[in-house]
Amino acid sequence: MISRIAILRNVQRCGPKHCVNCSYSVTSRQFSVNAVLGREPVPAKAPPKTVEDINKFVLNAKYAVRGRIPLLAESLKEQLAQNPESLPFSKIINANIGNPQQLDQKPLSFYRQVVSLLQNPEIVNQLAPEDLAKLYKPDVIERAQRMLKDVGRSVGAYSNSQGVAGFRQTVADFIAKRDGEPANANDIFLTSGASGSVAHVLQLFCSGPENGCLIPIPQYPLYTATLALNNATALPYFLDEESGWSTDPHQIEEVVKSAIERGVKPNAMVVINPGNPTGAILSADNIEGIFEVAAKYGIVVIADEVYQENGFDDVEFISMKKVLRVLQKTQPGAYDNVQLVSLHSISKGLSGECGQRGGYMELVGFSEEVKQVVLKLASISLCSVVTGQALVDLMVRPPREGEPSYEQDQKERNEIHESLKHRSSLLHRAFQSLEGVSCQKPLGSMYLFPKIDLSKKAIAKAESLGMAPDEYYCKELLEATGICTVPGSGFHQVPGTYHVRTTFLAPGTEWIESWKEFHGNFWDAHRD
Amino acid sequence: MISRIAILRNVQRCGPKHCVNCSYSVTSRQFSVNAVLGREPVPAKAPPKTVEDINKFVLNAKYAVRGRIPLLAESLKEQLAQNPESLPFSKIINANIGNPQQLDQKPLSFYRQVVSLLQNPEIVNQLAPEDLAKLYKPDVIERAQRMLKDVGRSVGAYSNSQGVAGFRQTVADFIAKRDGEPANANDIFLTSGASGSVAHVLQLFCSGPENGCLIPIPQYPLYTATLALNNATALPYFLDEESGWSTDPHQIEEVVKSAIERGVKPNAMVVINPGNPTGAILSADNIEGIFEVAAKYGIVVIADEVYQENGFDDVEFISMKKVLRVLQKTQPGAYDNVQLVSLHSISKGLSGECGQRGGYMELVGFSEEVKQVVLKLASISLCSVVTGQALVDLMVRPPREGEPSYEQDQKERNEIHESLKHRSSLLHRAFQSLEGVSCQKPLGSMYLFPKIDLSKKAIAKAESLGMAPDEYYCKELLEATGICTVPGSGFHQVPGTYHVRTTFLAPGTEWIESWKEFHGNFWDAHRD
Q1: B360 and B429: one domain?
Q2: To which H or E segment does residue A175 belong?
Q3: Residue A326 is nearest to which of B20, B24, B267, comparing CB atoms?
Q4: Residues B338 and B226 in one domain
Q5: Chain B: residue nearest A124 by CA?
Q6: Total structural domains within chain B
Q7: Using a CB-CB distance cutoff of 8 angstroms, which residues of chain A are in contact with residue B102?
Q8: What CATH number is given to the structural domain containing B199?
Q9: Which has more confidence, A231 or A43?
Q10: Which parts of B338-450 fold into alpha helices (H)?
């Protein structure tokens, strides 16, 4: 290493702006380089980092929701933008991801009015009362003022890493009302969507190959991806398609036993209810069976309940916490060891505020020491976005009957609900009419997961292309119609079965018709 | 496992609302339990998970910015709320964290007006033009409309996992202008603050004990905490306090060589410029020396440049990318292997929008394959909050001269800048006047990091309490004055030296006076 000269001393700084034409430049340095004595002309060099140098757990993680088919859709979208006539369709239908506001779903006005006031509270002082009243009903203004008091001063300040205390209390009140059982704001953590909660919990309990996590098959790929990043062991248990994707406690216990025999600790178990991608809603019976296994083996239950508002039939959603509390009361002492993490999110349901990144987790049955570790982990990423936290508060405490915004809010909610319900049954009927396709009736969530009994010819064709058979079907569907879905192989499935996950969020019915037409053609072209 | 009866079939669902009094209850289940034949009264039970079961890397991670002293401050704050007379001060001064809007700093109006329109675009149609003009200047409305077009439809939709393409282009334009060197939107990733970027990069290149990362001492604890979570090896290099916390390439190379000898790969090196907690600004000389080592050993340079707007003296901030490009031009071929990740954030500078969680990283010198892995990693957490992404766009492209909002925006920026500069020099002068305290002149960032030559008596007292000596000083300061700071031990420091990190964000001068008074008393009470 050689001595150097300072090229920059005491140059004028131009205030808070950036210096566009920095005084450090090729010309100035050329001068300095020439003035330096003894510099080696070309120093020693090591090769740059390549994919070979990357953490292999990151390399191995797969995330199908944004995998090969969606990437192909992106490139077709670009092709359409440049040359609209070059493809047999005019637009991409993004049925691959539950992203309601990318498609037809409008944000709830009450939420957005309150959050716009949190961003710009000055507006209340800038307008005459009669003009202000045109924009915001009194409960909007009151809510925003209460929430600003909760955050201290500004949504631009870091909050407590666990989340704003006032918002956590609103969540606790919501849970208490939903379940008829007490809830404590100290057990609530506000996170960046449910995925933020999942990352925290799995990092705590499932890291390293000796630690396992039971995941339902089919599953939401976030879980396998996060476990892969943590180099933890995924322990799959299968949902039973024929009985509406129900869980089987016997089979779950077998998975647990077999893991233990192999030296893998079954530390946690994911339950997705309502189901993604299955659309199923678990019965109280099913949930009780899960807790029985959890109690017996000391397994943390992760209840992914982000679709709890998305019910489209007469089957009721029952929270896992409610079932746990009932079990604890009816069999005193028997379930008091059970630990439950319940997740919720503003991304789904009638809110659909995916891009705003809000969610919560409730920790049930954990010691204060464990909660302190969760808090430390949360503090390393400082806090989740404060407006996302505010939207959690708004989601769990919408306008109530008698409040000024109630009627409009109800109207908007009912429209969204009816529209989702209508489209889910329309799409379900379409699948029932297709040759070789069967599909469970959707009860909740935003997805259908039809089973497609692909022919040997189709399977052979897929293999020749180096693709999973259902991935081939999805690719052909995309290239013929612009409909982007996710192959069942991305969610895992019973070997030898093939599925496709599609949302029913896309507006209109034309795309459903074009899917039907595609399917007929595909089926004919691949008959054995 | 026993057979079960279904208690819930075909109950009426009450539309999109939650069912407050769920039909699944203790009473209904009591009936069902009594009806079940053969149920074991109390099933087998395993113990619940405790701190012993938690991932030890999470347990070992430390995060001093929100560590013991700030936790004590939280409890004192609660005590004050309940009993205002019980302590010798009336409020807590949070000088422990760079959280400007928690204290005196107001958000920039232009940012907040645009973001409030992104949240509630309807407002433009709800007011007469003359009323609208009272609220928003034309460039605010235009900017919001452009940005809504960029996001597609709504800030409530997930964006591309890399970030909204239009916003990334704005960032690339900013970098190009700042450095006078081209920048590409495809190299930009929008992230949840800079901490989101750090988590991604370290997870890629620094995971497992065989992979090391050079970090400056003193350092920002995010880095040691994230490395601890990844079980990677932190490779400390010391900044030289006496020369204004400069870096020494010779010493850095020694650290690299010694790591290699121990079998640890020095994959990455963190450079914080302007410095946190030091407040130093690196010279071009210093930066060139760093790149020389990076080129020689193939080390990824992580340039934490989040304080690039926070300069308070006549020393210019020069981006590491600019220096790299100049080196590459003046010595063709010599530095073309260097890989750089440059971080920026909306949390600091004149924006101070910590709670809105926006930031970016620019990847320089990486292959397309590596960038695809970064994209996959980003996609597992779906996307960073879209309004945070929008604020990055606003930060890097504020109103320009001649645009309607320019004057007001400049006025606000100048006020913030002057106020920060004033308080930094006020606090610096105060430290210079204290016995046993020395403090480098602050050039940038939001912090002072005075060195306190604690007496043997103070050190012995701290040890008797099981505390680090500077932690003891901070605790005494907090308990006497309400001023919450972070002990230097949380940032690491040259052994045998003691420091305190304080922000200079708190308004007023009273707290500085009370610190001076405390220090005099502390010094007298601990004389050897």
Answers
A1: no
A2: helix A165-179
A3: B24
A4: yes
A5: B135
A6: 2
A7: 152-154, 157-158
A8: 3.40.640.10
A9: A231
A10: 368-380, 386-396, 406-432
